[in-house]
Amino acid sequence: MTFIAEHQDDVRTARLDRLLKHQAELEKDIKDLQKDLAASPDDELVQAKLDAASRQYGIVSEQYDSLSADTATLTLTPIERGVAIAQTNTSGGLAAPKSRTSRGLLGLLIGLSAGIGVALVLVRSDRRVRTRNQAEHIFGGAASVTIPLVPGSNESLEVRPDNHDQLSDAYRTLRSIVTFSQAALPRPRDGRKARVTLVIGAGPGDGKTSVAANLAAAAAEAGRRVIAVNADFRRPTLMARIVQPPPPPLPWWS
């Protein structure tokens, strides 16, 4: 119990330190960008970077406040009445428990130990990307924005003019990051300004439709002309997210 409590405190302290460090870095970036914007008020790239940095600073601040306010501690409830699991016989060896309660506790501990062993093996053999740190380690770079995981089924857009919560602002931050990253790329020789943003994922339920729909809504909210193309021919649900009520299916789709 002491080890679990100390380990939990160490993990929480390390996360708070990382958030404070990231917050300080964002403050420095925001100050530098404000100076650059003051020197060049019409620079759209600097404005987009400042917008993204400000939203990211707000997300980090919310995460820090939420983690600071969470003081819950993992505890274990000990058995109120301990029963001997193994009794020492007269020959000095260990004998099987005689009471039904002792045998039940022995079976419980054996099953618990086996379950923990299987769980450790499964964790070590799992190669799926589950955390932000794993993704950053695999791709060799820092994630610019994190879309918070909201439980439940969501069949509508989060980015709306009257909605400014953490989830919708995360999509707006993603829009700003995409905007200034595309602005830094060389323009095509024919002078077209259109850019293509491809949203892909390895499997179903990864959030491809949610990201594509809300990113398109965030870009349209900023005054851009957006064309959303659904390339998922097995489960095409992008139109239902954007258009309410959804249009009837095409004649050949059924």
Protein described:
The chain is an all-alpha fold and 254 residues long. The protein has 3 domains: 1-77; 87-125, no CATH class; 130-254, no CATH class. 53% of the residues lie in helices and 2% in strands. It is built from 7 helices and 2 strands. It has helices at residues 2-39, 44-69, 100-125, 132-139, 166-183, 208-221, 238-242; strands at residues 87-88, 94-95. It has a two-stranded antiparallel ribbon. A hairpin with a 5-residue loop joins β1 and β2. α1 runs antiparallel to α2, α2 packs antiparallel against α5 and α5 (166-183) crosses α6. Mean pLDDT is 78; it is low at 78-91.
Key phrases:
53% helix, 3 domains, 2 strands, 2% strand, mainly alpha, single chain, 7 helices, 254 residues, two-stranded antiparallel ribbon
Fold topology:
Layout: H1 2-39, H2 44-69, E1 87-88, E2 94-95, H3 100-125, H4 132-139, H5 166-183, H6 208-221, H7 238-242
Antiparallel strand pairs: 1-2
Helix pairs in contact: 1-2, 2-5, 5-6
Level of helix content?
40-55%
What is the count of helical runs? Answer: 7
Count of discrete domains: 3
The share of residues in extended strands comes to under 5%
How many beta-strand segments?
2
The radius of gyration over CA amounts to 27 Å
Structural class: mainly alpha
Shape: extended
Separation of the first and last Cα atoms? 58 Å
Query: Which strand order does the major sheet show?
Result: 1-2
Mean pLDDT figure: 78
Secondary-structure element pattern, one letter each: HHEEHHHHH
User: Uncertain segments of ≥5 residues (pLDDT<50)?
Assistant: 78-91
